[in-house]
Model the fold of this input.
Amino acid sequence: MEEYPQILGVYSLQVEEVAGMGGTSVKHAQVTYWYVRALGPERYEVQPLNIHHVPSGIRKEVAELEFLKSYVPEPAYYRTHTVPALKTLARKIAEGEKFFKEGQLDDAEREFLKALMIDDLNVRANFGLGEVYAEQKEFGKLKKIVDTLMGISEAFQEEQRERFNTFGINLRKNGHFDESLRFYHRALEFNDRDENVFFNIARVHFDKGDRVGCVEHLRKALDINPGFHEAQKFLKFCEGSRLAKSPRA
Done:
């Protein structure tokens, strides 16, 4: 059985445009290049290449008939331009992540910035740079990264679930509570049935000293997954603490 998604490479799309009117009109062809993945036996996803030959920007699904009729494979372009650029991008991100784990924040920042020069919308590089700025307490720079990620739907897709949860946790641990909440609530716009996101929102409210908000979101997490043991324990602790602080009748 074939596994999806499958990378098919780079394809070109030629669109004829007409400039001028009547007898003075002139036709010319505009060629664009697209990174293509097969999502299933009859499903195709295309994403435009940027000036550095890497896929960047909005992905869209194309019907099989339209894809087969309009898109032309460009194996030489893919091999000569896109593959080397993607390898360079991946290497810079990997180096940035390695430096970050080693606590070398300045070196990590430099590598993530290099990666973003190739693809300013790269999800991994933006997450990595955001974690650096969270650790450095660079709130102004961090806010710009969060704003960028908030506009990239790919950052909140299921395949990025572990990464965006970790990012939100790092925001909370470094005291960036409002940015963490913004981020998690954006994630709920893509999936409002993720008990882990509600649990993490509860943790932020707890750290802010908002027990009511904490309990509210723990209950939402348990509505989705009644067997969520960490949420059960946390809720029991919060409700027990609240009772302990209440005045005796």
In short: The chain has ten helices and five strands. The first strand starts at residue 6 and ends at 19.
